[in-house]
From TrEMBL:
Pfam families: ADH_N, ADH_zinc_N. Its cofactor is Zn(2+). GO terms for molecular function: oxidoreductase activity, acting on the CH-OH group of donors, NAD or NADP as acceptor; zinc ion binding. This is Theronine dehydrogenase-like Zn-dependent dehydrogenase.
Length: 338
């Protein structure tokens, strides 16, 4: 079968690789309905951090179960499933508190930019649909596996309420999903920070009410001007750089929460600034499993259309071109047909 491997920064190849097999009784094997490239795949692609080479790429997935280990009891072959990029048992204390992304048995999914994938901890990770979905819902279901679940977590962690004023820092796929999520949670004012026309338009479609193209001090001043010089009730940080984090902290009013889901790279905090700023922060890898049943229901009833975030579709064999398109920001998010 075809699988996507990263050999070194900037070097992605789709090759004939061995089909995955059941390694543990808690595993499932799925046939992917489609796959995609994540913004976080760009960190190693751009040379940030070490990785074992070659690395099997892909952690977002949905598809049909083709085999299960003997201990798996909640999903069975033939069912259409969606799972989180974070693998969890869904039974340990952290899972029970809704933080499946801190599961005592946590693993991260890999190898999903392929035709078949092995999903460890299948019972605690996968959610089965009642029936196979229509083809046009596949992109949205795939988005639920990571970007939608992560944007949703950012809004949940930032405690977005009906009537909230929300700032979303970052116009990548996760930021755009944060806009959609804040809208679903009843925010009445959603300020998206974006300099790119196509992303601004998508943000407006997902529910943004205001767009701010400025960054740094100008961006902060623009947010203050829109919020009676008070700041936002909730801020979603969806980038992970020092500049984006500083922007998020400066736009949040005292007493507010910042949901931060961009994996921090080189971000440092000043203790006294945090102390006197009086702002709360909750972030980390999203516990997508907590939200999946509700998100899948919203998608199946067509109340949300997160699949709109995919603006380029390529055959799996052309994954390398997909990485290039996302790296150069020509594409927001690339769907790979398997
Ligand atoms: Zn657990």
């Amino acid at each position: 079968m075809l699988g996507t491997l990263m050999y070194a920064p900037g070097q992605v190849k789709v090759e004939d690789v061995a089909e995955p097999s059941l390694l543990k009784p808690t595993d499932a094997i799925i046939k992917l309905a489609a796959s995609c490239i994540c913004g976080s795949d760009l960190w190693p692609y751009r040379g940030h951090g070490d990785f074992a080479q070659p690395m099997s790429m892909g952690h977002e997935y949905c598809g049909v179960v083709v085999a299960v280990g003997e201990a798996v009891c909640t999903v069975k072959p033939g069912q259409f499933v969606v799972g989180s990029f974070c693998l969890s048992d869904n039974t340990c204390p952290h899972c029970q508190y809704g933080f499946q992304s801190s599961c005592e048995q946590r693993e991260f999914m890999s190898g999903a930019q392929a035709e078949l994938a092995r999903v460890p901890l299948a019972d605690g990770t996968l959610v089965a649909l009642e029936a196979h979905p229509p083809a046009d819902l596949i992109p949205s279901l795939l988005a639920a596996s990571d970007v939608l679940g992560t944007g949703w977590y950012a809004a949940d962690a930032a405690r977005v309420q009906p009537g909230s004023t929300v700032v979303v820092v970052g116009d990548g796929a996760v930021g755009l999903m944060g806009v959609l999520s804040a809208r679903q949670m009843g925010a009445t004012r959603i300020i998206a920070m974006s300099r790119h026309k196509q992303r601004q338009e998508l943000a407006l479609e997902f529910g943004a009410t205001d767009i701010i193209a400025e960054r740094g001090e100008d961006g902060i001043a623009a947010v203050k001007a829109l919020t009676r010089h008070v700041g936002a009730d909730a801020v979603l940080e969806c980038v992970g750089t020092q500049q984006s984090m500083a922007q998020a902290l400066a736009c949040a009013r005292p007493g507010s929460m910042i949901g931060y889901v961009g994996v921090p790279h080189g971000v440092e905090f000043d203790g006294q600034q945090l102390f006197f700023g009086q702002k709360g922060m909750l972030g980390g890898p999203a516990p997508v499993r907590r939200f999946l049943p509700d998100l899948l229901a919203l998608i199946e009833t067509r109340k949300i259309n997160p699949g709109r975030v995919f603006d380029l579709e390529l055959p799996l064999a052309d994954a390398a071109a997909g990485y290039r398109a996302m790296d150069s920001r020509e594409a927001i998010k690339v769907l790979l047909r398997t």
